[in-house]
């Protein structure tokens, strides 16, 4: 339940809407005063009364019910206390009823959200720099679907550019078909790195010619390119499968080759395209930005040209409400330019394009470069984390069956959570020590909490114990704090969607796990003081497991039954 909205709807304050009142309601730092508080100081000027008097009058007029048990005035604050029993019965009954759909809604019914994420480059392995865009986009995809939207996941492949001419040149000079077929993406990458370190001027010219032949549809060059693409997609699929990431479209840059000219023509017709030193640009200086380059002096297209065509194609194809671009913040200017050009073209939906920027990933000794071969492969990071997880699990629970499958969920979850647990805009300096840390505020801690809850419930089933939403008495502090957290989950999911911030769900997971463990250690469950107390605490335990499972699933993280 959205308690702030519920309280606000039952308050009448002159010149203030329920939404404005709800926004002013806060959670007091000292919960002994109440669960929610409305500071009345800002109303003094409007109502021409002292804040203390306003709070007293509002408290006297507020009707207590089964949701809010008490409204009291204290020094200009209107404090509200939630009915413990009412919260317990309503929350536990709802979670039991909705199960895997708890937190879901039909908020987005009939509306489409396009999400452009991962966008890997053909012929280049999946490095740690691709982690954030892939797991952030994958999580947003699940969150929006969970809220009833039709989410369209788009992998805007990097399959266009002069690097493919360089790759073909390297292959023709040094490559062997059988060796590349067997070595796959890493064999291709080795050729690319070698070209950038050993290529002569003659080879550079040769590479440019090979790319021209690709563009012109030359059969041999196109067949080589398609082979490299096939090897790349087969490779990245293994990574996507481990990360539980899916896409609805793999339409990359090359897909828009025949869709750029209509955009260029429209820019010409609307007088937006001007010549500058032989190139064609859209002048954005009046809007505080450098010009948006549409065509080079040699007539070649650029990223902006293809992104303009892609945006128009997506609007025409999907009629999206929003189109999200999950791309690093280094591309802030690029997207501002593209969005502004579309606005100048008269595309009123340009306002619905959103750059979901995130921080960069670097090694501890500096940034990565595929050309120089200085990268850390994501598959290696995942595998090392899974191996570490298997080692720890084998030590802690040597008799656990299916340890490898559990280790996969734990290890992969640790990598994904590392990219999702902090605000997305923060830069990440990748550290194996941090990625392999199984203590503290990690997915491993949350997964272990779920396993603990599952163990309690399994023992209860063996004993034939029942569950009931009604508490034996007023819920204690530990029970109430956990109940409040569980009740907040639907609002957390909505907020994560509104702010494009899966870290809110990751933070929820850790906070709720901490509250459950406090409850677990301080309150007897199976040995409770009465049968009714035991049954209520079992219902609370089951509700926690359901909610944490739903939350981790939205992040793409699996939940082992045992650890």
Descriptive labels:
563 residues, alpha/beta, Gyrase A, domain 2, Rossmann fold, four-stranded parallel β-sheet, three-stranded antiparallel β-sheet, 20 helices, 12 strands, 54% helix, 10% strand, flat
Question: Would you summarize the structure shown here?
Answer:
The protein has 563 residues and is of the alpha/beta class. It has 20 helices and twelve strands.
Description:
The protein has 563 residues and is of the alpha/beta class. Among the domains are: 80 residues, Gyrase A, domain 2; 220 residues, Rossmann fold (3-Layer(aba) Sandwich), CATH 3.40.50. It has 20 helices and twelve strands. A four-stranded parallel beta sheet has the order 5-4-9-10, sandwiched between helices. A three-stranded antiparallel beta sheet has the order 1-3-2. A three-stranded antiparallel beta sheet has the order 6-7-8. Strand 9, helix 13 and strand 10 form a beta-alpha-beta unit. The longest helix is centred in the middle third of the chain and has 25 residues. It is flat and about 85 Å long. The protein starts with a helix and ends in an 8-residue tail after the last helix. The mean pLDDT is 91.
